[in-house]
Amino acid sequence: MPYLYLAIAIGAEVTATFFLTLSDGFTRRLPSCVTVVGYLTAFYALSQALRAIPTGVAYAIWSGVGTVAISVVSWIWLGQKLDMAAIVGMALIIAGVAVMNLCSGMSGHG
């Protein structure tokens, strides 16, 4: 269940960040409301995940997966460019999160 909360936190944060772009500096009502609700949902879900997942591990997953996800979402729906450096950087983020979870003692498993 904690990883489900973490997944909800990531999805809500990515949604909120996407709509933050569409809010035009909080001048458009609907995207602004989605942004606020999304961030509130993200932080609530993250707080629930942190009840069982170590903070460093949860934050690494949340921020790493969120960064990659919003980059891909922005590429698909907003036409933002992803050059080779960005793609390599995202691969390194994913690798770093994987190493933390699989090999580090931070996860509490090893």
From TrEMBL:
Gene Ontology MF terms in the entry: amino-acid betaine transmembrane transporter activity; antiporter activity; choline transmembrane transporter activity
Annotated GO CC locations: plasma membrane
Membrane topology classification: Multi-pass membrane protein
Record keywords, A-Z: Cell membrane, Membrane, Transmembrane, Transmembrane helix, Transport
GO term, biological process aspect, one: xenobiotic detoxification by transmembrane export across the plasma membrane
Tree of life domain: Bacteria
Subcellular location: Cell membrane
Transmembrane segments: 26-46, 58-78, 84-103
Family: Belongs to the drug/metabolite transporter (DMT) superfamily. Small multidrug resistance (SMR) (TC 2.A.7.1) family.
Name under which the protein is recorded: QacE family quaternary ammonium compound efflux SMR transporter
Organism (species): Novacetimonas cocois
